[in-house]
Amino acid sequence: MAKITLARAWCNNEVGYLAWKTDEKIKDCLGFMITRIHLDEQGNESERRILPAWVAFATQSNPKWAQQDTSVWPIQKFSWRDLTLRRSRDKAEVRKPDFKVKYEIVAVGKAGPGRAPVPRSADADPSKYQGQPVPLFFCSAPAQTNVVSVTTDLVVKGGRPVVTAGFTNGILSTQDLRQQLNTPQGKAPSKAELQKHIDTDKEDPIRTFLTADALPLIAGFMGRATQEDCELYCALYELNDPTLLDLLGANADRVHLILSTAGSKKPAKGSHKPIVWDTTNTKSRAMLRNKVAEFHDRMFNNSAHIGHNKFAVLVDRASQKAKAVLAGSTNWTFTGLCTQSNNVIIIDDANVAAAYFAYWQRLRDDKLPVPHPISKPNNNKQGQDLRQADMTPSHAALSADPGTDVTLWYSPNTKAATKTKTSPTPPDLADAFALMENAKDAIFFLTFMPSVAGDQSIIAESIDAATKKDLLVLGAISDGRALPNEPGTTPAGGKTKPQRASGSRPGRGGKRAAAKKRKTAARKKTARSAARRRTVAMAARVHAVRSARAARPARKAKPRRGAAATKSTRSKTPQPKRAIYQNPKAPDVLMIRAAAISDFDLIGDWEHEMLKYGQAIIHDKIVVIDPLSDDCVVITGSHNLGYKASYANDENLLIIKGNRALATAYMVHVLDVYDHYKFRAILEQQAYERQMGKPGQKPAIGKGILDVDDGWQDKYVNGKPTKEQSYFLDATTT
After folding, report:
1. Can you tell me the distance from the alpha carbon of 305 to that of 383, in angstroms, rounded to the nearest whole number?
2. I need a surface site. Which of 138, 146, 189, 562 has the fewest CB within 10 A?
3. Domains, the chain, ranges and CATH?
4. Which residue(s) pair with 397 in the sheet?
């Protein structure tokens, strides 16, 4: 009898991620039933809960998206995300953190000799869906995973958290949000209806769910200012969240705030009026300017530079020494907290906090002219003193955990204020790129919009690293323009990076001239070698994209001149766009962009979803390298992970090595976002390819999508396991 041979689990404070394997295909198996087992302080079982499910069999339909569980609709995959680890998906309930769980996985399917029927669970209710129930029977013995701890406190010493990390839920393209907002069938949720729930300082279950751990962590950090008699030094890009504004006001006598320009509004066409800058922060600036202990306008009223930081430092009032820092990607806005994927990290370490505090002081001392009126365009950019100081990173091992190594980079850290296609690699990204090139097994990332086509960013670098060695690379990108080799753009990695200038000028005279000539020749030789290497990598990527494209269908005849436009000629239906990057020469590289169920890719019982509220969807800036090894690396902060951020913006980039608990938490967050959008990206990619003339049928709608035979297993059990399957099941869990 076939069996489950191994099952593994990992989690952060929000999501559990599971992977398992079998020794062979399980005959008649229709999927896996998964049970979460809660443990008490002694490690004994205190509760068993079968994971919920909403996707019906193909012979059924679940039009109202009613919840059953995996004893009714099993999981037809060999990995899964437990999205209900702390939060209910049909009630506004949140389980308190800091507990331990493990999972039990068992194959279920059709009746057969010796197979016992699956008992009916309390959540099984055939009256809530259409079609006949599918009787299920146990097809294997159950297998249990390792125990995982559900907590934000990842390094603790003496009962006090030293490293804490949390994440927003912030994914709007869900059927759950439709249900919460009572969205009519055939329509996507509206921004106006959502804003009522998220732009508020009142308790709201939708806001609570979307902010997840991010808001409690920021609020708790601010609360420590009073509790521990500290000053709070903040450098913020965007600020408009009602709750955080209330907290800043409540701690006003302790708050030292650098607030940068955020948001702009173009004038009416033909008005010849200038752009209005700082639209996001206008009210917050007026509210806090004369209220807090110290306030600084940092006005980049131009499109070339932004003050992109989002960090805060606690500084002891008596000693004036920094003690803790809060950083990450989360802007202090209701969109940053509710409508985007983001992360928050708190480090209680004097050395790390002192480095951030020193950076805050350098930002304060880098005086920029304040325009009058404050919304007026300007050409402000950072000064050379700041740029020079930012070229040197800070480095520390955590005093509470010497195995955790922290490097903090600051931006801007180049002499030039603007990057070009031939700009040298900035020092912070050179550090990050070197770590990616040294990856042994895997790179995971989330990014917003580091660059067009991924060039001069971690996107191109991860592809280059994967083409040199057998790496697993999984990434999710917010903006489709950053997908490698987007039509009409320069291929990522297509430009040779010039060698860095030596910094010294040769003197006059024969010997010096000869030395200069030798050095020039050596540099050219090195540059040619680098160019050849990059050309090979670039060619692989170009070939991958070209080979994936089909010929465009023949153009439809244009309507005759003067003919009235018809619905068919002026259709406003959104069109699918390329959503996936794959590379045949690096088959374990898969990059997807954020997508939502729309008109062109409806499937099963899914209805229209909201892709985004504002500009960003995935707002995280995360790279995780070899998270399941002792050599793991987490890269995070405000930095958008492309050259422009290093050349033009105020940024911070945290590189944390050797902390597996932190790396695992960030890995699960990346996988959560990646897996969510992967399903939707595949649907849109298929629609895009059909539009380009590639054969394929639109998915069936109005019914479930689970297979009613065991053939769904074939892609998992036939042939060699994928790098992704092997990585999660071959690595150790401690």
Report:
1. 12
2. 562
3. 4-151 (2.60.40), 189-381 (3.30.870.10), 390-491+576-692 (3.30.870.10)
4. 405
Question: What's the gap between Cα 411 and its chain centre?
Answer: 21
Per-residue pLDDT reduced to its tens digit, 130-160: 999 999 999 999 999 999 999 999 999 999 9
Sign of CA dihedral 664, 670, 671, 672: positive
CA separation for the pair 435, 604 (Å, rounded): 43
**Can you give 130-175 as a three-state secondary structure string?**
ECCCCCCEECCCCEECCCEEECCEEEEECCEEEEEEEECCCCCCCH
Beta-carbon contacts of 299 under 8 Å, excluding residues fewer than 6 positions away, are 260, 261, 277, 278, 368, 369, 370, 371, 374, 378, 380
Please write down the long-range contacts of 35-41, taking CB distance under 8 Å and 24 or more positions apart: 35/103, 35/104, 35/105, 36/82, 36/85, 36/101, 36/102, 36/103, 37/101, 37/102, 37/103, 37/104, 37/144, 38/99, 38/100, 38/101, 39/99, 39/100, 39/101, 39/102, 39/147
> pTM of the entire structure?
0.89
Query: How far apart are alpha carbons 494 and 539 in whole angstroms?
Result: 9
DSSP for residue 452: G
732 HSE (CA, 13 A, CB side): 7
Q: Quote the tokens at residue 418.
A: 């603007």
Which residues, 6 or more positions from 721, have their beta carbon under 8 angstroms from its beta carbon?
Answer: 21, 729
Q: Crossing angle for the helix pair 427-437 and 458-468, nearest 10 degrees?
A: 30
Q: State how far the Cα of 136 lies from the Cα of 4, in Å rounded to an integer.
A: 18
pLDDT for the residue 680 = 98
